[in-house]
Amino acid sequence: MTAQRPPEGYIGMQIVSYDGKYVGEVGTVFSPTGQEPGEGLIATVTQHRQLGKKLTLWNTVPLKGAQIHTEGELTVPYRAQQVHASPELTHTPEALDALFSERILTHYGMSPDTAPDLAFNVLIKPTKSFEEGIPEGTTCIPGNVAWRTFTEEGAWAQAAQLVGIGLQLSGHHALLKDWEADARELMLPRCEALGQISPADAAGKAIAELGIPFEVEDMMLGRIGPTLQERAAYQHTLWLECQLNEHRSARGAGVALLLLGLTSPYEVVRVISASELLRMFEKKQALTSVLRSGCASESQTIREISANALARFVDEQHFIEKFQRTEHDPGTAIPSHSSITVHGTWAAFNSWWQPGSALSEHIRATCSPDLWNAPNSFTWGGGYNNAARQRAASRLRSWTAINGIHTLECVYAHSHGANVALESALEGVQIRLLVLLHPAIVRRSVLVTDRILRKVGRILAFTTRWDIVVLADRALRFFPGRDPRIEVVYRGWFDHSAFTSKDLWERLGIADKVSGELRLVDPQFPVS
Protein backbone atom coordinates (compact mmCIF):
# COMPACT_ATOMS: atom_id res chain seq x y z
CA MET A 1 0.00 0.00 0.00
CA THR A 2 1.10 3.60 -0.57
CA ALA A 3 2.80 5.08 2.46
CA GLN A 4 0.31 7.56 4.01
CA ARG A 5 0.95 8.10 7.71
CA PRO A 6 1.61 11.01 10.04
CA PRO A 7 5.36 11.77 10.16
CA GLU A 8 5.85 10.01 13.49
CA GLY A 9 4.29 6.84 12.04
CA TYR A 10 7.38 6.14 9.91
CA ILE A 11 10.01 6.39 12.64
CA GLY A 12 11.92 3.14 13.13
CA MET A 13 10.74 1.51 9.92
CA GLN A 14 13.34 -0.35 7.84
CA ILE A 15 14.06 1.27 4.48
CA VAL A 16 14.58 -0.93 1.40
CA SER A 17 15.68 0.51 -1.94
CA TYR A 18 13.81 -0.47 -5.10
CA ASP A 19 16.77 -2.62 -6.16
CA GLY A 20 16.16 -4.71 -3.05
CA LYS A 21 18.86 -3.49 -0.65
CA TYR A 22 18.45 -2.58 3.01
CA VAL A 23 19.68 1.01 3.41
CA GLY A 24 18.82 1.81 7.02
CA GLU A 25 15.97 2.85 9.27
CA VAL A 26 13.81 5.95 9.41
CA GLY A 27 15.13 8.36 12.00
CA THR A 28 13.53 11.79 11.96
CA VAL A 29 10.85 12.78 9.44
CA PHE A 30 10.59 16.34 8.10
CA SER A 31 8.12 18.27 5.99
CA PRO A 32 10.01 20.56 3.56
CA THR A 33 9.72 24.28 4.09
CA GLY A 34 6.72 25.83 2.36
CA GLN A 35 4.61 22.68 2.22
CA GLU A 36 1.68 21.54 4.31
CA PRO A 37 2.43 19.07 7.13
CA GLY A 38 2.22 15.50 5.89
CA GLU A 39 3.11 16.42 2.31
CA GLY A 40 6.53 15.94 0.67
CA LEU A 41 8.00 14.19 3.71
CA ILE A 42 11.75 13.66 3.94
CA ALA A 43 13.31 11.10 6.30
CA THR A 44 16.78 10.71 7.71
CA VAL A 45 18.40 7.29 7.28
CA THR A 46 19.86 6.21 10.61
CA GLN A 47 22.26 3.56 9.34
CA HIS A 48 24.93 6.20 9.41
CA ARG A 49 28.60 6.17 8.45
CA GLN A 50 31.55 7.23 10.57
CA LEU A 51 34.06 9.48 8.81
CA GLY A 52 37.45 9.44 10.51
CA LYS A 53 35.68 8.39 13.72
CA LYS A 54 34.91 12.05 14.34
CA LEU A 55 31.68 12.86 12.57
CA THR A 56 28.41 11.00 12.17
CA LEU A 57 26.40 11.70 9.00
CA TRP A 58 22.77 10.89 8.24
CA ASN A 59 21.59 10.41 4.67
CA THR A 60 18.20 11.75 3.62
CA VAL A 61 15.42 10.33 1.41
CA PRO A 62 12.00 11.63 0.30
CA LEU A 63 9.05 9.43 1.23
CA LYS A 64 6.91 10.46 -1.73
CA GLY A 65 6.05 7.31 -3.69
CA ALA A 66 7.27 5.03 -0.90
CA GLN A 67 5.38 1.82 -0.18
CA ILE A 68 4.68 -0.09 3.01
CA HIS A 69 4.45 -3.69 1.80
CA THR A 70 5.00 -5.39 5.16
CA GLU A 71 4.58 -3.91 8.60
CA GLY A 72 7.79 -2.25 9.70
CA GLU A 73 9.35 -2.16 6.20
CA LEU A 74 9.27 0.69 3.71
CA THR A 75 10.29 0.52 0.03
CA VAL A 76 11.45 3.78 -1.55
CA PRO A 77 11.56 4.32 -5.36
CA TYR A 78 15.31 4.93 -5.49
CA ARG A 79 18.44 2.84 -5.85
CA ALA A 80 20.53 2.13 -2.75
CA GLN A 81 23.48 3.91 -4.35
CA GLN A 82 21.40 7.04 -4.75
CA VAL A 83 20.29 7.00 -1.12
CA HIS A 84 23.89 6.58 0.05
CA ALA A 85 24.96 9.53 -2.13
CA SER A 86 22.18 11.84 -0.88
CA PRO A 87 22.74 15.14 1.00
CA GLU A 88 23.77 14.43 4.60
CA LEU A 89 22.97 15.93 7.97
CA THR A 90 25.53 16.21 10.76
CA HIS A 91 22.85 16.77 13.39
CA THR A 92 19.08 16.64 13.69
CA PRO A 93 17.64 20.15 13.21
CA GLU A 94 14.19 21.28 14.25
CA ALA A 95 13.35 21.81 10.55
CA LEU A 96 15.01 21.66 7.14
CA ASP A 97 15.71 25.06 5.65
CA ALA A 98 14.62 25.85 2.10
CA LEU A 99 18.13 25.55 0.63
CA PHE A 100 18.81 22.10 2.09
CA SER A 101 15.32 20.89 1.15
CA GLU A 102 15.98 22.01 -2.42
CA ARG A 103 19.32 20.14 -2.45
CA ILE A 104 17.58 16.92 -1.40
CA LEU A 105 14.75 17.21 -3.91
CA THR A 106 17.15 18.16 -6.70
CA HIS A 107 19.32 15.14 -5.91
CA TYR A 108 16.41 12.74 -6.19
CA GLY A 109 14.59 14.55 -8.96
CA MET A 110 17.46 15.12 -11.37
CA SER A 111 19.78 12.16 -10.84
CA PRO A 112 19.93 9.64 -13.71
CA ASP A 113 19.53 6.89 -11.11
CA THR A 114 16.06 8.12 -10.23
CA ALA A 115 13.18 6.00 -11.41
CA PRO A 116 10.48 8.62 -12.18
CA ASP A 117 8.42 6.20 -14.27
CA LEU A 118 7.79 3.76 -11.43
CA ALA A 119 4.06 3.61 -10.68
CA PHE A 120 4.35 2.88 -6.96
CA ASN A 121 0.90 4.36 -6.44
CA VAL A 122 -0.62 1.22 -8.00
CA LEU A 123 1.17 -1.31 -5.80
CA ILE A 124 -1.09 -4.02 -4.41
CA LYS A 125 -4.35 -2.11 -4.60
CA PRO A 126 -7.82 -3.64 -5.14
CA THR A 127 -8.80 -4.38 -8.73
CA LYS A 128 -12.49 -3.54 -8.69
CA SER A 129 -12.96 -0.08 -10.27
CA PHE A 130 -12.98 0.49 -14.04
CA GLU A 131 -9.32 1.05 -14.66
CA GLU A 132 -8.61 -2.14 -12.79
CA GLY A 133 -11.84 -3.76 -13.97
CA ILE A 134 -9.88 -5.84 -16.47
CA PRO A 135 -10.32 -9.32 -15.09
CA GLU A 136 -6.76 -10.24 -14.24
CA GLY A 137 -3.23 -9.05 -13.76
CA THR A 138 -3.96 -5.34 -13.70
CA THR A 139 -1.55 -4.37 -10.93
CA CYS A 140 2.05 -3.49 -11.60
CA ILE A 141 3.99 -4.68 -8.56
CA PRO A 142 7.59 -3.77 -9.37
CA GLY A 143 10.91 -5.46 -8.86
CA ASN A 144 11.68 -7.82 -6.04
CA VAL A 145 8.55 -6.75 -4.15
CA ALA A 146 6.56 -8.94 -6.55
CA TRP A 147 8.53 -12.00 -5.48
CA ARG A 148 7.55 -11.51 -1.86
CA THR A 149 3.88 -10.88 -2.63
CA PHE A 150 1.69 -14.00 -2.53
CA THR A 151 -1.54 -12.69 -4.04
CA GLU A 152 -3.09 -13.03 -7.50
CA GLU A 153 -1.75 -9.57 -8.35
CA GLY A 154 1.70 -10.61 -7.20
CA ALA A 155 1.52 -13.78 -9.30
CA TRP A 156 0.74 -11.84 -12.49
CA ALA A 157 3.60 -9.45 -11.77
CA GLN A 158 5.93 -12.45 -11.26
CA ALA A 159 4.76 -13.98 -14.55
CA ALA A 160 5.37 -10.65 -16.27
CA GLN A 161 8.97 -10.58 -15.07
CA LEU A 162 9.49 -14.24 -15.99
CA VAL A 163 8.45 -13.69 -19.59
CA GLY A 164 10.78 -10.68 -19.74
CA ILE A 165 13.67 -12.72 -18.33
CA GLY A 166 12.92 -15.58 -20.72
CA LEU A 167 12.79 -13.17 -23.62
CA GLN A 168 16.32 -11.99 -22.82
CA LEU A 169 17.70 -15.47 -22.19
CA SER A 170 16.47 -16.48 -25.65
CA GLY A 171 18.29 -13.54 -27.21
CA HIS A 172 15.29 -11.33 -28.11
CA HIS A 173 16.64 -8.17 -26.49
CA ALA A 174 15.71 -6.03 -29.50
CA LEU A 175 12.05 -6.73 -28.83
CA LEU A 176 12.32 -4.96 -25.47
CA LYS A 177 12.79 -1.61 -27.25
CA ASP A 178 9.05 -1.59 -27.96
CA TRP A 179 8.28 -2.26 -24.29
CA GLU A 180 11.01 -0.25 -22.55
CA ALA A 181 8.73 2.03 -20.52
CA ASP A 182 6.82 -1.01 -19.21
CA ALA A 183 10.06 -2.86 -18.45
CA ARG A 184 11.34 0.06 -16.39
CA GLU A 185 8.12 0.28 -14.43
CA LEU A 186 8.28 -3.44 -13.72
CA MET A 187 11.95 -3.06 -12.71
CA LEU A 188 12.71 -5.96 -15.03
CA PRO A 189 16.22 -7.37 -14.40
CA ARG A 190 18.50 -7.22 -17.43
CA CYS A 191 20.59 -10.22 -18.41
CA GLU A 192 22.45 -11.58 -21.41
CA ALA A 193 21.30 -14.36 -23.71
CA LEU A 194 22.22 -17.94 -22.86
CA GLY A 195 23.66 -18.44 -26.32
CA GLN A 196 25.49 -21.76 -26.37
CA ILE A 197 25.49 -22.14 -22.58
CA SER A 198 23.55 -25.12 -21.25
CA PRO A 199 20.54 -23.82 -19.28
CA ALA A 200 20.80 -26.74 -16.86
CA ASP A 201 24.48 -26.05 -16.20
CA ALA A 202 23.86 -22.31 -15.78
CA ALA A 203 21.00 -22.89 -13.34
CA GLY A 204 22.96 -25.54 -11.42
CA LYS A 205 25.91 -23.19 -10.97
CA ALA A 206 23.65 -20.34 -9.82
CA ILE A 207 21.69 -22.29 -7.23
CA ALA A 208 24.89 -23.80 -5.84
CA GLU A 209 26.57 -20.40 -5.46
CA LEU A 210 23.44 -18.83 -3.96
CA GLY A 211 22.86 -21.62 -1.45
CA ILE A 212 19.50 -22.81 -2.80
CA PRO A 213 19.13 -26.48 -1.75
CA PHE A 214 17.65 -27.99 -4.92
CA GLU A 215 18.84 -29.91 -7.93
CA VAL A 216 17.90 -28.75 -11.43
CA GLU A 217 16.27 -32.07 -12.33
CA ASP A 218 14.16 -32.04 -9.17
CA MET A 219 13.00 -28.51 -9.99
CA MET A 220 12.13 -29.51 -13.55
CA LEU A 221 10.12 -32.52 -12.38
CA GLY A 222 8.38 -30.67 -9.57
CA ARG A 223 10.02 -32.74 -6.85
CA ILE A 224 10.46 -29.78 -4.53
CA GLY A 225 8.04 -28.38 -1.98
CA PRO A 226 9.30 -25.18 -0.35
CA THR A 227 7.03 -23.37 2.08
CA LEU A 228 5.81 -19.93 1.02
CA GLN A 229 8.40 -18.33 3.28
CA GLU A 230 11.19 -20.43 1.76
CA ARG A 231 9.90 -19.75 -1.76
CA ALA A 232 9.84 -16.00 -1.10
CA ALA A 233 13.44 -16.12 0.16
CA TYR A 234 14.68 -18.19 -2.82
CA GLN A 235 12.82 -16.02 -5.33
CA HIS A 236 14.20 -12.86 -3.73
CA THR A 237 17.76 -14.24 -3.83
CA LEU A 238 17.50 -15.32 -7.47
CA TRP A 239 15.90 -12.04 -8.54
CA LEU A 240 18.68 -10.03 -6.88
CA GLU A 241 21.30 -12.08 -8.71
CA CYS A 242 19.46 -11.47 -12.00
CA GLN A 243 19.42 -7.77 -11.22
CA LEU A 244 22.90 -7.25 -9.79
CA ASN A 245 24.93 -10.21 -11.17
CA GLU A 246 27.11 -10.13 -8.08
CA HIS A 247 28.11 -13.80 -8.50
CA ARG A 248 28.33 -13.56 -12.31
CA SER A 249 25.37 -15.95 -12.46
CA ALA A 250 22.53 -13.69 -13.64
CA ARG A 251 21.62 -15.95 -16.56
CA GLY A 252 21.62 -19.07 -14.43
CA ALA A 253 19.54 -17.30 -11.76
CA GLY A 254 17.02 -16.42 -14.46
CA VAL A 255 16.73 -20.05 -15.54
CA ALA A 256 16.43 -21.10 -11.89
CA LEU A 257 13.61 -18.59 -11.33
CA LEU A 258 11.75 -20.17 -14.23
CA LEU A 259 12.37 -23.67 -12.85
CA LEU A 260 11.17 -22.60 -9.42
CA GLY A 261 8.08 -21.16 -11.10
CA LEU A 262 7.00 -24.65 -12.23
CA THR A 263 5.91 -25.41 -8.66
CA SER A 264 4.38 -22.01 -7.91
CA PRO A 265 0.99 -22.07 -6.17
CA TYR A 266 -0.24 -19.79 -9.00
CA GLU A 267 -1.27 -21.13 -12.39
CA VAL A 268 -0.10 -18.15 -14.44
CA VAL A 269 3.43 -18.46 -13.02
CA ARG A 270 3.55 -22.21 -13.75
CA VAL A 271 2.33 -21.74 -17.33
CA ILE A 272 4.66 -18.86 -18.19
CA SER A 273 7.59 -20.77 -16.69
CA ALA A 274 6.80 -23.87 -18.74
CA SER A 275 6.30 -21.81 -21.91
CA GLU A 276 9.70 -20.12 -21.58
CA LEU A 277 11.55 -23.29 -20.51
CA LEU A 278 10.29 -25.10 -23.62
CA ARG A 279 12.61 -22.83 -25.58
CA MET A 280 15.61 -24.05 -23.58
CA PHE A 281 15.29 -27.71 -22.59
CA GLU A 282 15.09 -30.82 -24.72
CA LYS A 283 13.20 -32.84 -22.11
CA LYS A 284 9.70 -31.47 -22.43
CA GLN A 285 7.31 -34.00 -20.87
CA ALA A 286 6.98 -32.27 -17.50
CA LEU A 287 6.58 -28.91 -19.24
CA THR A 288 3.88 -30.08 -21.64
CA SER A 289 1.94 -31.49 -18.69
CA VAL A 290 1.78 -28.01 -17.17
CA LEU A 291 0.71 -26.49 -20.49
CA ARG A 292 -1.97 -29.09 -21.17
CA SER A 293 -3.50 -28.23 -17.81
CA GLY A 294 -3.23 -24.54 -18.72
CA CYS A 295 -5.39 -25.11 -21.81
CA ALA A 296 -8.28 -25.80 -19.44
CA SER A 297 -7.73 -22.64 -17.36
CA GLU A 298 -10.58 -20.28 -16.54
CA SER A 299 -8.36 -17.46 -17.84
CA GLN A 300 -8.37 -16.93 -21.59
CA THR A 301 -4.91 -15.36 -21.36
CA ILE A 302 -3.49 -18.48 -19.69
CA ARG A 303 -5.25 -20.75 -22.18
CA GLU A 304 -3.72 -18.87 -25.12
CA ILE A 305 -0.20 -18.93 -23.67
CA SER A 306 -0.51 -22.69 -23.08
CA ALA A 307 -1.90 -23.56 -26.50
CA ASN A 308 0.58 -21.28 -28.30
CA ALA A 309 3.51 -22.93 -26.55
CA LEU A 310 2.25 -26.43 -27.32
CA ALA A 311 1.73 -25.56 -30.98
CA ARG A 312 5.10 -23.86 -31.33
CA PHE A 313 7.43 -26.37 -29.75
CA VAL A 314 5.80 -29.74 -29.35
CA ASP A 315 4.05 -32.15 -31.66
CA GLU A 316 0.73 -31.69 -29.90
CA GLN A 317 -1.48 -31.14 -32.94
CA HIS A 318 -3.80 -33.97 -31.90
CA PHE A 319 -4.34 -32.21 -28.57
CA ILE A 320 -4.74 -28.60 -29.70
CA GLU A 321 -6.74 -29.11 -32.89
CA LYS A 322 -9.93 -29.20 -30.82
CA PHE A 323 -9.39 -25.50 -30.10
CA GLN A 324 -9.57 -24.62 -33.81
CA ARG A 325 -12.58 -24.21 -36.05
CA THR A 326 -13.49 -26.12 -39.18
CA GLU A 327 -13.21 -23.81 -42.18
CA HIS A 328 -16.33 -23.51 -44.34
CA ASP A 329 -16.94 -22.05 -47.79
CA PRO A 330 -17.28 -18.26 -47.79
CA GLY A 331 -21.01 -18.45 -48.60
CA THR A 332 -23.08 -15.37 -49.40
CA ALA A 333 -23.78 -12.32 -47.35
CA ILE A 334 -26.12 -9.35 -47.24
CA PRO A 335 -24.28 -6.53 -49.06
CA SER A 336 -25.34 -3.91 -46.51
CA HIS A 337 -23.47 -5.81 -43.81
CA SER A 338 -19.99 -4.38 -44.31
CA SER A 339 -18.49 -4.54 -40.80
CA ILE A 340 -17.13 -7.79 -39.41
CA THR A 341 -15.30 -9.38 -36.48
CA VAL A 342 -12.15 -11.49 -36.86
CA HIS A 343 -11.19 -13.75 -33.96
CA GLY A 344 -7.62 -14.64 -33.10
CA THR A 345 -5.91 -17.98 -32.62
CA TRP A 346 -7.85 -20.81 -30.94
CA ALA A 347 -11.37 -19.58 -31.72
CA ALA A 348 -12.86 -22.14 -29.32
CA PHE A 349 -11.40 -20.20 -26.38
CA ASN A 350 -13.86 -17.32 -26.72
CA SER A 351 -17.12 -16.27 -28.38
CA TRP A 352 -16.98 -12.47 -28.37
CA TRP A 353 -16.82 -12.40 -32.20
CA GLN A 354 -19.84 -14.59 -32.86
CA PRO A 355 -23.13 -13.06 -34.09
CA GLY A 356 -25.43 -12.63 -31.13
CA SER A 357 -22.65 -12.46 -28.51
CA ALA A 358 -22.85 -9.75 -25.87
CA LEU A 359 -20.04 -7.69 -27.39
CA SER A 360 -21.25 -8.11 -30.98
CA GLU A 361 -24.72 -6.92 -30.02
CA HIS A 362 -23.25 -3.97 -28.12
CA ILE A 363 -21.17 -2.97 -31.15
CA ARG A 364 -24.20 -3.24 -33.47
CA ALA A 365 -26.31 -1.12 -31.13
CA THR A 366 -23.75 1.63 -30.61
CA CYS A 367 -21.18 2.13 -33.37
CA SER A 368 -21.52 -0.42 -36.19
CA PRO A 369 -25.19 -1.10 -37.06
CA ASP A 370 -23.97 -2.91 -40.19
CA LEU A 371 -21.99 -5.49 -38.17
CA TRP A 372 -22.59 -8.97 -39.55
CA ASN A 373 -25.22 -10.85 -37.58
CA ALA A 374 -26.47 -13.47 -40.03
CA PRO A 375 -25.38 -17.00 -40.96
CA ASN A 376 -22.26 -17.50 -43.08
CA SER A 377 -20.27 -14.80 -41.32
CA PHE A 378 -16.55 -14.72 -42.04
CA THR A 379 -14.59 -17.20 -39.94
CA TRP A 380 -11.23 -18.91 -40.14
CA GLY A 381 -9.63 -21.94 -38.54
CA GLY A 382 -7.61 -20.05 -35.92
CA GLY A 383 -4.45 -22.08 -36.50
CA TYR A 384 -1.22 -20.97 -34.87
CA ASN A 385 1.06 -20.37 -37.84
CA ASN A 386 1.63 -17.88 -40.62
CA ALA A 387 0.27 -20.26 -43.26
CA ALA A 388 -3.10 -20.49 -41.48
CA ARG A 389 -3.31 -16.71 -41.18
CA GLN A 390 -2.33 -16.22 -44.83
CA ARG A 391 -4.97 -18.73 -45.88
CA ALA A 392 -7.52 -16.85 -43.78
CA ALA A 393 -6.58 -13.55 -45.45
CA SER A 394 -7.23 -15.07 -48.85
CA ARG A 395 -10.57 -16.38 -47.61
CA LEU A 396 -11.51 -12.90 -46.42
CA ARG A 397 -10.69 -11.46 -49.83
CA SER A 398 -12.89 -14.14 -51.46
CA TRP A 399 -15.66 -13.55 -48.92
CA THR A 400 -15.81 -9.81 -49.66
CA ALA A 401 -15.73 -10.44 -53.43
CA ILE A 402 -18.51 -13.04 -53.33
CA ASN A 403 -20.69 -10.73 -51.29
CA GLY A 404 -20.07 -7.66 -53.42
CA ILE A 405 -18.46 -5.70 -50.61
CA HIS A 406 -16.11 -3.15 -52.14
CA THR A 407 -14.91 -1.70 -48.83
CA LEU A 408 -15.30 -3.02 -45.31
CA GLU A 409 -16.57 -0.24 -43.09
CA CYS A 410 -15.10 -1.52 -39.83
CA VAL A 411 -13.15 -4.66 -38.92
CA TYR A 412 -12.83 -5.67 -35.26
CA ALA A 413 -9.88 -8.06 -34.90
CA HIS A 414 -8.40 -9.71 -31.80
CA SER A 415 -4.80 -10.91 -31.32
CA HIS A 416 -3.53 -12.68 -34.47
CA GLY A 417 -6.83 -11.81 -36.12
CA ALA A 418 -5.08 -8.49 -36.67
CA ASN A 419 -2.62 -10.23 -38.98
CA VAL A 420 -5.48 -11.85 -40.91
CA ALA A 421 -6.97 -8.40 -41.53
CA LEU A 422 -3.61 -6.85 -42.39
CA GLU A 423 -2.71 -9.63 -44.81
CA SER A 424 -6.12 -9.30 -46.47
CA ALA A 425 -5.37 -5.60 -47.03
CA LEU A 426 -2.12 -6.67 -48.69
CA GLU A 427 -4.27 -8.79 -51.01
CA GLY A 428 -6.47 -5.83 -51.88
CA VAL A 429 -9.25 -5.78 -49.25
CA GLN A 430 -10.06 -2.18 -48.31
CA ILE A 431 -10.92 -1.31 -44.69
CA ARG A 432 -12.08 2.13 -43.56
CA LEU A 433 -11.40 1.54 -39.86
CA LEU A 434 -9.46 -1.37 -38.38
CA VAL A 435 -10.12 -1.80 -34.63
CA LEU A 436 -7.45 -4.01 -33.07
CA LEU A 437 -8.00 -5.67 -29.68
CA HIS A 438 -4.76 -6.85 -28.07
CA PRO A 439 -2.97 -7.11 -31.45
CA ALA A 440 -0.02 -9.50 -31.84
CA ILE A 441 1.65 -8.00 -34.90
CA VAL A 442 3.92 -10.16 -37.05
CA ARG A 443 7.09 -8.41 -38.22
CA ARG A 444 6.89 -7.02 -41.73
CA SER A 445 9.21 -4.84 -43.76
CA VAL A 446 8.56 -1.11 -43.99
CA LEU A 447 7.68 -1.53 -47.66
CA VAL A 448 5.09 -4.23 -46.97
CA THR A 449 3.64 -2.27 -44.05
CA ASP A 450 3.27 0.79 -46.27
CA ARG A 451 1.43 -1.26 -48.90
CA ILE A 452 -0.95 -2.52 -46.23
CA LEU A 453 -1.65 0.94 -44.81
CA ARG A 454 -2.64 2.24 -48.24
CA LYS A 455 -5.67 -0.06 -48.01
CA VAL A 456 -6.66 0.96 -44.47
CA GLY A 457 -8.20 4.33 -43.63
CA ARG A 458 -7.36 4.43 -39.93
CA ILE A 459 -6.29 2.01 -37.19
CA LEU A 460 -7.48 2.16 -33.59
CA ALA A 461 -5.73 -0.32 -31.27
CA PHE A 462 -6.67 -1.21 -27.69
CA THR A 463 -4.15 -3.12 -25.63
CA THR A 464 -2.77 -3.64 -22.14
CA ARG A 465 0.74 -2.82 -21.00
CA TRP A 466 3.23 -5.71 -21.00
CA ASP A 467 0.76 -8.10 -22.65
CA ILE A 468 2.29 -11.43 -21.65
CA VAL A 469 0.69 -13.38 -24.52
CA VAL A 470 2.23 -11.06 -27.11
CA LEU A 471 5.60 -11.13 -25.34
CA ALA A 472 5.61 -14.91 -24.98
CA ASP A 473 4.85 -15.05 -28.71
CA ARG A 474 7.77 -12.67 -29.43
CA ALA A 475 5.36 -10.53 -31.47
CA LEU A 476 4.96 -6.75 -31.76
CA ARG A 477 2.10 -4.83 -30.19
CA PHE A 478 2.09 -2.01 -32.72
CA PHE A 479 3.60 -0.95 -36.02
CA PRO A 480 7.16 0.33 -36.33
CA GLY A 481 7.46 4.06 -36.88
CA ARG A 482 4.73 6.64 -36.42
CA ASP A 483 1.68 7.19 -38.57
CA PRO A 484 -0.92 9.88 -37.72
CA ARG A 485 -3.69 7.49 -38.80
CA ILE A 486 -2.83 4.99 -36.04
CA GLU A 487 -3.90 5.50 -32.44
CA VAL A 488 -3.04 3.11 -29.60
CA VAL A 489 -4.97 3.11 -26.30
CA TYR A 490 -3.44 1.39 -23.26
CA ARG A 491 -5.39 0.29 -20.17
CA GLY A 492 -4.33 -2.11 -17.42
CA TRP A 493 -1.52 -4.65 -17.40
CA PHE A 494 -0.66 -8.13 -18.66
CA ASP A 495 -4.07 -9.40 -19.85
CA HIS A 496 -4.82 -10.48 -23.44
CA SER A 497 -8.61 -10.61 -23.48
CA ALA A 498 -9.87 -7.60 -21.54
CA PHE A 499 -11.03 -5.61 -24.56
CA THR A 500 -13.26 -8.45 -25.74
CA SER A 501 -15.53 -7.75 -22.75
CA LYS A 502 -18.81 -5.86 -23.31
CA ASP A 503 -18.64 -4.58 -19.72
CA LEU A 504 -15.28 -2.96 -20.34
CA TRP A 505 -16.50 -1.42 -23.60
CA GLU A 506 -19.39 0.15 -21.70
CA ARG A 507 -17.25 1.41 -18.81
CA LEU A 508 -14.67 2.92 -21.17
CA GLY A 509 -17.10 4.27 -23.73
CA ILE A 510 -15.13 2.51 -26.46
CA ALA A 511 -18.05 2.63 -28.92
CA ASP A 512 -17.92 6.45 -28.82
CA LYS A 513 -14.21 6.29 -29.53
CA VAL A 514 -14.81 4.01 -32.53
CA SER A 515 -17.52 6.33 -33.89
CA GLY A 516 -15.16 9.28 -33.50
CA GLU A 517 -12.38 7.48 -35.37
CA LEU A 518 -14.75 6.62 -38.23
CA ARG A 519 -15.51 10.32 -38.63
CA LEU A 520 -11.77 11.00 -38.96
CA VAL A 521 -11.31 8.66 -41.92
CA ASP A 522 -10.37 10.61 -45.02
CA PRO A 523 -13.58 11.21 -47.03
CA GLN A 524 -11.58 10.36 -50.16
CA PHE A 525 -10.84 6.86 -48.85
CA PRO A 526 -10.66 4.47 -50.56
CA VAL A 527 -8.62 5.91 -53.37
CA SER A 528 -9.42 3.90 -56.47
**SS class:** alpha/beta
State the CATH architecture of the largest domain. 3-Layer(aba) Sandwich
What is the succession of H and E elements? EEEEEEHHHHHHHHHHHHEHHEHEHEHEHH
Number of domains: 3
Give the C-alpha Rg.
Answer: 26 Å
Largest β sheet strand count, sense and barrel closure = 6 strands, mixed
Helix count, DSSP H or I runs of 4 or more residues = 19
Q: Which regions have little confidence, pLDDT < 50, spanning 5+ residues?
A: 48-55, 110-137
Q: Order of strands side by side in the largest beta sheet?
A: 4-3-2-1-6-5
Protein architecture, described:
The protein has 528 residues and is an alpha/beta fold. The protein has helices at 80-84, 98-110, 152-169, 180-186, 199-209, 216-220, 228-244, 250-261, 267-277, 285-294, 300-313, 317-320, 358-366, 386-402, 417-426, 446-453, 468-472, 502-508, 510-520; strands at residues 14-16, 22-30, 42-51, 55-62, 67-70, 73-75, 339-342, 407-414, 430-437, 456-465, 486-493. The protein is built from 19 helices and 11 strands. The strands form 2 sheets. The chain has a 6-stranded mixed beta sheet. Strand 3 and strand 4 form a beta hairpin. The radius of gyration is 26 Å and the shape is globular.
